[in-house]
Amino acid sequence: MTDGPLPGAGAPRPAPDRDPGLQPERTRLAWRRTTLSATVMAVLAGRRLLRSDAPGPVEVVLAVLMGLLWMAFVVLAHHRMQAMAVGRPPALPPRTVLLLVGCTLAPALCGAVILVPGH
User: How many whole angstroms separate alpha carbon 78 and alpha carbon 81?
Assistant: First the structure.
């Protein structure tokens, strides 16, 4: 009997480089669908503003904000898809996760304000 731990016991197992299945492809496609949905939402908000007689300053500011959030989301999604192409991507930092959540929720709130009658 040995007094110490067995060799190799407790040592972390190396993570495989890549999922051999189709999971990375499905995840990449999900990022693309989400980016497409964000694009459609930004275009519809812009269309709503262009069709109104005289958009107020609140609507114009919200439209610009939605455009900036859309661009930030597209850039973050593109970087994430590129990271997935070469192997197991690193975990997203909490700051990036919060930015992605903000880029998803804020346009919905802006769109709700734009669609409120009287604005």
Answer: 5
